[in-house]
Design brief:
With about 675 residues, the protein is α+β, with helices and mostly antiparallel strands. The strands form six sheets. It has an eight-stranded antiparallel beta sheet. The chain is globular and about 65 Å long.
Length: about 675
């Protein structure tokens, strides 16, 4: 199912994949050439002239019509297979598997369109049924140019697929037909966002909201001197008439991260920190699972996504509440092991971002509890000076008046207001709020964007943060994809030839983005009150650039393809669900389950099925019979829609198993 819960784990938006042991890799192509190690990202060509970039650290070999890329772990492979003529994408994918790894081939489960881009006339994603206990990633993307098809295949360990996501993005985004030159806005004069262009942007947003089922949104635009447009669209809550306006409050989630690193930049200006200072110098309690990694972490690395620590969100999602002390960030970090080399790959970790904010707050107010110190430091050093009067970490204050209620789709793709379960999840970020706990408005957030655009100057002309230290947060720490790098809580995307500084935010029913285009003297924010807002963020950025640089009209097609894909994925997975749940499965379950890391799950049998208490709230469940003979309990409440727990009853012991990208959690039946 299109798991809304999966997107939530990201706070800024990549997919979560399950952990795996060393799954069997696909068979090598016939008569492979010598394996070549790639020491740096390598612009490459296939025999027919298709271009792509092979990622650093991987290995590559070729056979006629096939390029194979092998991850450093050895348990995950990508292949580019030039199929030639085929009846359609499904047939092309089948032909590619037959040539590359026939023993691994499976029937296609779902074929969904992606908008034609990068010189291709058609792109289709082909998904396959994979049982949870396989712990395996498997997909094909079919590209057509004229009558010839090229198919990209991924297969192997899901844990490696998550860890190496930036490399996958690099190869997929750089694959182009022979002779194609991608669009670039470099050297183009920026057009003003006048009334006509603003009207086009508004129309795009309104049509996209309708296509994606987004009830409400707010957006704002700024130049270097003022907010020249701010507007609300749609409603604050489905079924109620109150409109969103530019002062409606939304959760901004991971857009908090850039503000937390702005606090650090101010402290560097004040001489209280150095970017290259070991974190343990200023906060001796800081510790990671590996002492070697701990010793390497400098202040600049706290929000760099480059330390080798993987995502580890389940513990705060399931086993914390708003009353959990802020110090739990450091307790959890001390038990988190790196899964890749320092600086080797992009691995997003919310606990590290949380630590960054708390270290900064502690330096400003060492006499206060960590959470209180951070809140006060942010008000004194960031929100107050920038003029962000309606930005807060106080959940009750944020939801007391003019606020946009979050929404998510149910299992029938119907947008639904998020109530108890989703709001409990959103409250649970409070102990880790430097990573994603702020609430703001379009009118407030655009002030922060303007501060970034003006390189540290407030609206009254004061140089509050030096350009040197503000811009240090944009220096590349690790690549995310083709011409996209991650700094400190900010990404810089140069894919279209002009640098665009941005960051997304994702919590339950809230998706947001900030966009800064220095070369056009332009900044923008978009806030949405729907999980489907995730599919609008990148197209919003693209549409803005299209209007400013007279680019190809691609954003509309991106939204249309995403809307169709979301509905198709949910409908396909709905076919596999039994709702109400299979009574035999429910009858065999324990009344409660306990995990030492994630806490307690309570099962309640009801007249029409059962609920599981997850993250402090009861949620309705269905059951799913997997192809390998196992059964999963699947959450069908909107916010956690599709979240699976594998039933593992064996030897008289009753267990449920949950997995995130690189961890497995076992719940023992009471």
């Amino acid at each position: 199912m299109r798991v809304a819960f999966t997107a939530l784990m990201l706070l800024c938006g990549t997919s979560a994949l399950a952990q795996t042991a060393a799954a069997p890799a696909p068979a090598a192509p016939e008569a492979p050439a010598k394996l070549v190690s790639i020491s740096e990202d390598l612009p490459s060509k296939t025999a027919s002239g298709l271009t792509f970039t092979a990622p650093k650290g991987w290995s590559m070999r070729t056979a006629p019509g096939i390029v194979e890329l092998i991850a450093p772990e050895g348990d995950f492979r990508m292949a580019i297979v030039e199929v030639g003529a085929a009846a359609d994408a499904k047939a092309a994918a089948a032909a590619a598997w037959a040539r590359f790894a026939p023993a691994e081939a499976r029937p296609a489960k779902l074929v969904t369109m992606r908008a034609a881009r990068n010189g291709w006339d058609e792109r289709q994603a082909v998904d396959y049924e994979v049982s949870p206990n396989e712990k395996r990633a498997m997909q094909a993307i079919a590209f057509r140019k004229g009558t010839a098809w090229t198919v990209g295949i991924i297969a192997g360990s899901e844990a490696t697929a998550e860890k190496r996501g930036a490399a996958l993005n690099l190869v997929a985004s750089s694959l182009r037909p022979a002779g194609y030159t991608r669009e670039s806005f470099a050297g183009h004069a920026a057009r003003p966002m006048d009334a006509a262009r603003i009207a086009e942007l508004r129309t795009f947003l309104e049509q996209s909201m309708q296509a994606l089922g987004i009830p409400g949104a707010a957006f704002a635009l700024t130049d270097r001197s003022r907010t020249f447009h701010a507007e609300g669209l749609g409603v604050r809550e489905l079924g109620k008439p109150t409109k969103v306006d530019p002062d409606s409050t939304f959760m901004i989630a991971s857009n908090t991260k850039g503000m937390a690193t702005l606090l650090l930049a101010k402290l560097v200006d004040e001489g209280k920190l150095r970017w290259d200072q070991p974190v343990t110098d200023v906060y001796p309690a800081f510790k990671l699972g590996s002492s070697e990694t701990t010793s390497k972490v400098l202040i600049r690395h706290l929000v760099c996504a480059c330390t080798g620590l993987p995502r580890k969100d389940f513990e705060w999602i399931f086993n914390t509440s708003a009353k959990t002390p802020a110090s739990d960030t450091f307790v959890q970090l001390a038990a988190t092991q790196p899964t890749s080399g320092f600086g080797e790959v992009f691995q997003y970790n919310n606990l590290m971002a949380s630590a960054a904010g708390y270290v900064g707050g502690h330096i400003v107010h060492p006499e206060l509890e960590l959470g209180a110190a951070f809140d006060r430091a942010m008000e004194e050093k960031v929100f107050g000076p920038i003029g962000m009067r309606n930005t807060t970490f106080d959940f009750d204050r944020a939801t007391a008046g003019n606020w946009a209620r979050p929404h998510s789709d149910d299992m029938n793709s119907k947008p639904t207001p998020i109530v108890e379960a989703g709001m409990a999840f959103n409250r649970a970020i409070a102990p880790f709020r430097p990573a994603g706990g702020a609430w703001s408005t379009a009118n407030d957030l655009i002030k922060y964007v303007r501060f970034e655009l003006n390189e540290g100057k407030t609206d009254d002309g004061r140089q509050w943060v030096s350009p040197k230290n503000l811009l240090e947060r944009r220096v590349a720490n690790v690549p995310v994809g083709e011409d996209i790098v991650y700094g400190m809580g900010l990404q810089t995307n140069s894919y279209w030839g002009v640098p665009v500084v941005h960051h997304g935010g994702s919590m339950g029913g809230y998706k947001s983005d900030i966009v800064i285009v220095p070369g056009a003297n332009l900044g923008a924010v978009i806030l949405t009150n729907s999980d489907n807002g995730q599919a609008l963020l990148r197209p919003f950025m693209r549409r803005l650039l299209e209007l400013v640089y007279d680019g190809k009209p691609e954003a509309v097609g991106d939204v249309a393809a995403a809307a169709a894909r979301i509905k198709a994925e949910v409908a396909k997975e709905r076919e596999r669900l039994t709702v109400p749940p299979d009574p035999k499965v429910i009858a065999a379950l324990a009344p409660a389950y306990v995990s030492p890391e994630l806490g307690r799950l309570a099962l309640t049998r009801t007249a029409d099925g059962a609920t599981l208490t997850l993250a402090g709230s009861p949620m309705a469940i269905g059951t799913r019979a997997n192809d390998d003979g196992t059964t999963s309990l699947v959450v069908i409440d909107p916010t956690f829609l599709g979240f699976p727990l594998v039933v593992a009853n064996e030897g008289g012991k009753r267990r449920l198993i949950a997995r995130d990208g690189q961890h497995e959690y076992v719940f023992e039946g009471e």
